[in-house]
Amino acid sequence: MSQPPLSAAVYAKDARRLAAFYAAALGLARVEEGASFVLLAAAGIELAVVQAPPAIAEAIVLTDPPAVREDTPVKLSFQVEDVEGVRPVVARLGGGLAAPDAAWSWRGQLHLDGWDPEGNVFQLRQASVA
Fold it and tell me: CB neighbours (10 Å) of residue 31?
């Protein structure tokens, strides 16, 4: 398998749950699993979901709905075919997307922020509809 152009890692309180979220929401395949990680991939992207060390994981408090953690300097952005088509999957798996009217267009794409079940902010992009 050739290396994808983008590889990223997300540390998680519950790596298995978070990997299931990203796999279903983004259509990523599980390509490798170990005791402390799940590696997901699709054309153009590889996402490692890594179990946070116990001392860090124990300090993370998850709520329902998750508290959105917007105070991070990094936001992963993923291309999807239909942002609104992903919304029910994201919600069913414990995440969320901002309201449709919060979407914006830039560089020929529609952008909308969301959050995963652990409150990590991410962005979805789709080709703009003319």
Answer: 12
Q: Answer yes or no: is 2 within a domain.
A: no
Residue 16's SS3 state is helix
- Tell me the C-alpha distance between 121 and 97, whole Å: 9
Helix, strand or coil for residue 31?
strand
The answer to whether residue 1 sits within a structural domain is no
Q: Is residue 11 part of a domain?
A: yes
Whole-angstrom distance, CA of residue 116 vs CA of residue 93: 8
- Residue 84 belongs to a domain with what CATH number? 3.10.180.10
Beta strands in 75-120 (DSSP E): 76-79, 96-97, 104-106, 109-115
Cβ proximity of 129 and 82 under 8 Å: no
pLDDT mean for each 10 residues of the chain (130 residues):
80 97 97 97 94 94 92 92 97 97 95 98 87
User: Do 45 and 22 meet the contact criterion of CB atoms below 8 Å apart?
Assistant: no
